Amino acid sequence: MFERIDHVGVAVEDLDSAIELYEAGFEMELAHRETVESQGVEAVLLDVGDGHIELLRPLGPDTAVGKFVAKRGPGLHHVAYAVDDIDAALDRLKQEGIELIDAEPRVGIRNSRVAFVHPRSTGSVLTEIVEPAH
């Protein structure tokens, strides 16, 4: 069902410091930076192989990532898998009885279509399904 790991999401409090760490310390190239108002984050993609690290700074304490940081602190937030057809992937997950946070895709970074799978169905790992924009 999944083609590859698209990205690993990391929640951060200070985006510029995190970018500096990943660029200078880990020699990852900054690929994209965008505010995704609909998800309440400022997000950065850094290249690592064919995938990315996505750094997520919450836009406020009442956003999903803001609540995550308040409860757990900065750190690993989610793993995202790329698919060709997110609608087909979501239908298959529903048929398998896997609990979805998003029954329908929403717009993500770089105009991708994304949906999240509930951690209760994935061994406590927040999982994102991504259909990159074409």
Comma- or semicolon-separated keywords:
134 residues; alpha+beta; globular
Outline of this structure?
By secondary structure, this protein is an alpha+beta fold. It is built from 3 helices and 8 strands. Helix content is 22%, strand content 39%.
Can you characterise this structure?
The chain is an alpha+beta fold and 134 residues long. It has three helices and eight strands. It has helices at residues 15-25, 64-72, 86-95, and strands at 4-11, 29-36, 41-48, 51-58, 75-82, 106-107, 113-117, 127-131. An eight-stranded mixed β-sheet has the order 2-3-4-1-5-8-7-6. Strand 6 and strand 7 (113-117) form a beta hairpin. The radius of gyration is 14 Å and the shape is globular.
Structural class: alpha+beta
- Profile the largest sheet: 8 strands, mixed
Helix content: 10-25%
Computed Rg: 14 Å
What count of helical segments does DSSP give?
3
Distance between the termini: 19 Å
Q: Tell the overall outline.
A: globular
Set out the fold topology.
Blueprint (H helix, E strand, L loop, with lengths): L3 E8 L3 H11 L3 E8 L4 E8 L2 E8 L5 H9 L2 E8 L3 H10 L10 E2 L5 E5 L9 E5 L3
Parallel strand pairs: 1-4, 5-8
Antiparallel strand pairs: 1-5, 2-3, 3-4, 6-7, 7-8
